[in-house]
Every structure is written in structure tokens, then in C-alpha cells.
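Changelog-linked ticket: phenylalanine example.
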Amino acid sequence: METKRENFGSKIGVIAAAAGSAIGLGNIWRFPYVAGENGGAAFLLVYLVFVVGIGVPVMLSEFVIGRRAQSNPVGAFKRLAPKSLWPFAGFVGITAAFTILAFYTTVAGWTLEYLYLTLAGGFDKADKAGLTSQFSSFISSGPRPMFWQMIFMVMTAYIVLKGVKNGIEKYNKILMPLLFGILILLVIRSLTLPNSFEGVHFLFAPDFSKINAEVLLQALGQSFFSLSIGMGTLITYGSYINKKDNLSSTAFSVSVADTLVAVLAGMAIFPAVFAFGITPEAGPSLVFITLPMIFSQMAGGQFFEIIFFVLLAIAALTSTISVLEVVVAYLSEELKLSRAKSTLIAAGSISVLGILCTLSQGPLPKLSIGGMNLFDILEATSATILLPLGGLFIVIFVGWVMKKETVFAEITNEGSLKGRLKMLYLIIIRFIAPVAIALVFLNGVGIFGYGG
Ligand code: PHE
């Protein structure tokens, strides 16, 4: 049907969109609790090594594939490696898009409920027991979390429907600066609490004895999840990047912004957690139970609580649009459906899985295996299995299947940029990244017998 592809309008738009994808619940909801459960500063250190050594090169590789092929992930592999099994790697991405968006919209829905509760004047009982029971009865109640999840899905679909430039780029350019502003305010509030230093210490003073195979896998999974890599989101966004933009500097800026926000989120959350004498390993409920408790005891708490949940909702929205776009681009380009139809089908079918995810928290107890419900399973497997697997395919593809000359031509914009680090990049994606991903992955999932 349509043949002309849309592009992002400006370099700043590209960065806002890609950073919008990367910065999300992964930074503000997931990073603090995964770091809290895995040793704090020790985790942060390993995480930073993975972001620089593996994350940035994988991100650049996705941009290379996307912009070269001018296509969605499945189409991209088809174009660059015709008559091969590589499009399968694109389908791994589409699968990951379904699983991630399903549980992600569940959590995004919770943020809307909490925003609503805060605006409506707060919580019934703001002590730990009261907030815990309020949170667990809410998430397991069925219709209410489903309602918020669907509102979130509709907002996501609305923006995606508007297209790349007038939807995705436009909203990211407004929402991302707002997000930064809110986050800085929260960090200042948290650091000016009495005894906040303990939280800073927890986040920045590493205890190396805490590092084990599980911590490595969690850090790898978190770096992939947080950077939005390993499933073709950035292949898709890469395909909309103008031929004149510098892919390497874009990948670098986006990764820096994403890491900065994770660290800032840690600096907003841990000092407050410690200032109020709470343990940092609270798990997924950290921001929904621990933080409301802290806010209720803090001067100006309600105001900061409102802006915190606005922050979470914005961060989530700029990420969900990037995940939905992957499926929409696939449907519209490969199955030649209109953008409207593609958006409807993608959002509709993902909603079915998303609703099952929400219902698995309570009303449908059958949707569990070995103590993990569908939500837990999708959350855990997408970050630590699907994304590293996808990332492995991507680096092997760019490193070994695509011609070196083609890859360099894409990185240097056909020779007009120097691309000084291109040999280093090649060595990383050919040797270091695949071996590191495979080792951490096999080790962490226990194949060598001493993981976990
Ligand atoms: N990076 C997003 C976050 O940190 C999540 C995401 C993962 C988005 C994979 C797109 C693809 O919240």
C-alpha cells in the first residue's frame, strides 16, 4: 500500500525518541529494586561495565541494521540476508514485544491508579501493613487494574497511530525534558532528608563479595531491558533515522541519558529509603509500597508523590509507544496493512495477553507455574532470556553476516564521518560481546551448574 517511509524530523527528535524508549519503568521502577536485591553499588558497577562494553555496541548494531535495511526487524533481516533463517531473529523480537508490553502495561496501569489515589487525597492507611494490603488487594482485584491498563494501552495506541513524526517524535520532545525536570526535583528532595547519606553509600560504595553469577545475569538483563536493546525496537527506530545523522554518537548519547536517569532514580529512591529506616530489597513493590510510606512522612510529601507518579507514567508511555511501534511497523510493512489497522490489531492482540497478565495476579490463579504467575514469568524471562538472546543474534549478524564494508559505510555515513572507533566496535561485536553474552547467560541460567 504505502511505500514512502516516514523519518524522524531532526537529530534531537531521534535522541528524544530513542531515549524515550530507553528511559522507562526499567529505570525508575525496575532498576532500584533489582539493584537493591543484588547488592546495590556492586550491581551498579557491573551494570555500568555492561552498558559501556556491550550495551552501546548492541545499540549501534541495531541502528546499523535498521537504517541499512529501512525496515522493521523481520523485514530488515529478510532484506539483508535473503533466503536465510535470519528473519527468525526478527520474530524473536516480535515475541519479546508482546511479552514486554503485556506485563509493562500492567505496571503502567498501576502507576495511573497510584496517581489517581494520590490526587484524590492519599491512602487509607499510610503505614507499611496498610499500604501493603492496599497494594496487593488492588493489583489482584481484576477489573480495576485492567481498566487502568486499557487506558494506558489506548494512550499508547493513539500516539503510535499519529505516526513517527507527528506522534512519536512530537510527544517525546515534550515529555522527556519534563521527565528530567521532575526527576531532578525528586533527587534534591531526597538528598536533603536527614540521614540520606546511607542511601548514597549503598548506591556508590561497592562490596565486591556480592558479585556472583546471578548478579551478573541480572545486571546484563537489566542493561538490555533498560537500553531497549535485543528485540528490534532500535532496529525499528533506526530505520527512521535520517541518513545524515551520526549513528555512533546517537547510540552513545542515548545510553548516557538512560544510565544517568537510572542513577538519578537510585539517588531519588535509596536516600529516602534509608532515611526512613527501610530495607532496600523490597522487590517490585518498592515504588508502590515503600515510596508512598516515605512520602506520607515527608514534608511536602503529597506534592512530591504526585510528580513522582506523573514521572513514572510519562517514562512508561514513551517506552510503550516504542514497543508497540515494532509490531505496528511489522504488520504494516510485511502484511501491507494500513497504519490504523496495524495499530488496532497490534494493540488489541497484545491487550489480550496483557489482561491475562493482570488477571494472573489474582482472579486467575491457574495462570502460574511453580509459584510464579504469568506476570512474573513474562517479567523475568523477557529481560534475562529473550533480550540477551536477541542481542546475541544481532551482534552475530552485524559482526559475521553483514559485510564489514557495509557496516562501516553505515557507521561513517558512506565515508563522510571518520568513525575512529570502528575497529574497536568490530572487535567487540565479533568476539567480546557474543562471548560475554553467551557466558553470562549460560552461567546465570545455571547451565554450568553453579549459577543462580
Ligand atoms: N527500556 C524500557 C525501560 O527501561 C523498556 C523497554 C524494553 C522498551 C525493551 C523497549 C524495548 O523501561
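Closing comment: Example verified and attached. The first helix runs from residue 11 to 22. The chain has a mean pLDDT of 91.
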